Amino acid sequence: MKWFRNYEECEQITRTFMDSFSELSQTRMEQSYNAAGQYHDDYSKIWRVMQTFQKCLWEIEEAVENGFHKWMKTNFELRKEAIEYHNSNGNDFYGKNKKIEQISEA
């Protein structure tokens, strides 16, 4: 199954799970992103990151219980939607917060 349109999407989505991993797994993921940068094509970069990501999934009980593919299908889709929503509405959201902060400071 093709999870991502390109490597940038892969990195963006997998990074959103970093807080779910131990420090050791976070380090491993960072190393996988760095190693992926040595490849020239998206397929190889995604493969490299996903090999490490799937090893890190052993730390997420729900992923272990439900199966990695099922968990990734559900959670990657949710993260994609959240990122797309943020990208299309992020500026308005932060703009409103700045206005609220300015009003509360006055």
Overall 3D form:
globular
Averaging pLDDT over every residue, what do you get? 84
| SS class | mainly alpha
Spatial gap, N to C terminus: 53 Å
Give the % helix.
over 70%
Say what oligomer this is: single chain
Largest sheet: none
Q: How many distinct folded domains?
A: 1
Number of strands: 0
Q: What is the H-and-E element order?
A: HHHHH
Secondary-structure blueprint of this entry?
Layout: H1 7-15, H2 23-36, H3 42-56, H4 61-66, H5 68-105
Helix pairs in contact: 1-3, 2-3
What does this protein look like?
The chain has one domain (7-105). The protein has helices spanning 7-15, 23-36, 42-56, 61-66, 68-105. Helix 1 (7-15) packs parallel to helix 3 (42-56). The protein is an all-alpha fold. 77% of the residues lie in helices and 0% in strands. The chain has 5 helices and no strands.
In brief, what are we looking at here?
The protein has 106 residues and is mainly alpha-helical. Helices cover 77% and strands 0% of the residues.
